[in-house]
Design goal:
The protein has ten helices and eight strands. It is α/β, with parallel strands linked by helices. The chain has a single domain (30-311), classed as Arginase, Chain A. An eight-stranded parallel sheet has the order 2-1-3-8-7-4-5-6, with helices on both faces. The model has no long low-confidence stretch (mean pLDDT 93).
């Protein structure tokens, strides 16, 4: 825990400077276990923008998190040396230039031996992040928690990249291990009747919200653990949660996970070879009472706790 009084360490959540959990803000990675990186980019959205403000708001609400994880019985900031790396210098008018910068910045962190946790931003950022992780680890196993499959070919004519396409291109580029891609919580109306079949043909195991509710979270986690054999990347779209729990997002879908189920899913990844993580699609302009950002910051804390357990 950062004890620099300039950050407001030891003060109430409404005091001090809001880095993530008051961590030191630094780009010095020597002996750093985990870096928190913001990607304030939302030009890949197809409906409501605003996720460019997500990283800042998630950091702000992270000040509500006390340091000890009572469920996992670990205090991650006592086990890990963690820094807030700041933000990627995004270019709002160019998704392709921004993706290049994301991959470059993420690679700089990963190649140093530091594990990366990324705060989005819209879900288009997952593709350049996966490119960076695949450079380091080879193709990764992928746990994708979302309301949407995000394996469409294109949402906009003649433009391949958006927040609805990252995993199609990740699969086509060989960034994901064959048979080790699971998407969880999928629901809502589709653009066509063959969308799920198309995702399956690409290599996705689509677990709909209906299957989650019928089987229960423990059964879903059992399958995830059976499938994930390699270095595992985790990507969480906050719209996987029902809008009752996460209204502040760009493309809300009714009938989703509860906040507790989402926490269960992330906690249940304990034991996998976790190598990277992103949390995307928090849109503060639509977030009533900051409840979406509160949930998002806690999900990041849960993943950080898993890294602390893994680190011993």
């Amino acid at each position: 825990m950062n004890d620099n009084p300039a950050f407001g360490a030891g003060l109430q959540p409404f005091m001090g400077i809001p880095s993530f959990m008051r961590l030191p803000v630094s780009r010095e990675l020597k002996n750093v276990d985990v870096a928190i990186l913001g990607v304030p980019f939302d030009s890949g959205t197809s409906y409501r923008t605003g996720t460019r403000f997500g990283p800042r708001k998630i950091r702000e609400l992270s000040l509500l998190i006390w340091g000890h994880n009572s469920t996992l019985n670990v205090t991650p900031l006592k086990k890990l040396n963690v820094v807030d790396y700041g933000d990627v210098s995004v270019i709002p008018t160019s998704i392709e230039h921004t993706m290049t910068v994301i991959t470059k910045t993420a690679s700089e962190i990963i190649t140093s031996g530091t594990t990366l946790i990324t705060l989005g931003g819209d879900h288009s950022i997952a593709l350049p992040l996966l490119r960076a992780h695949a450079k380091k680890h080879g193709p990764v196993s992928l746990v994708h928690i979302d309301a949407h499959i995000d394996t469409w070919e294109s949402e906009f004519e003649a433009v391949p990249y958006s927040h609805g396409t990252p995993f199609r291109y990740a699969l086509q580029e060989g960034l994901i291990r064959t048979g080790e891609y699971v998407q969880i919580g999928i629901r809502g109306p589709l653009s066509g009747e063959n969308d799920y079949a198309d995702a399956a043909a690409l290599g996705a195991r689509t677990i709909t919200i209906h299957e989650v509710m019928e089987k229960g979270v423990p059964a879903i986690l059992k399958e995830v653990h059976e499938r994930m054999k390699g270095p595992t990347y985790v990507t969480v779209d906050i719209d996987s949660a029902d809008p009752a729990f996460a209204p502040g997002t760009g493309t809300p879908e009714v009938g989703g996970l509860t906040s507790y189920q989402l926490l269960q899913l992330v906690r249940g990844l304990h034991g996998l070879n976790l190598v990277g993580f992103d949390l995307v699609e928090v849109s503060p302009p639509y977030d009533h009472g900051d409840i979406t950002a509160i949930l998002a910051s806690n999900i990041v804390f849960e993943y950080l706790s898993l890294l602390a357990i893994k680190n011993g």
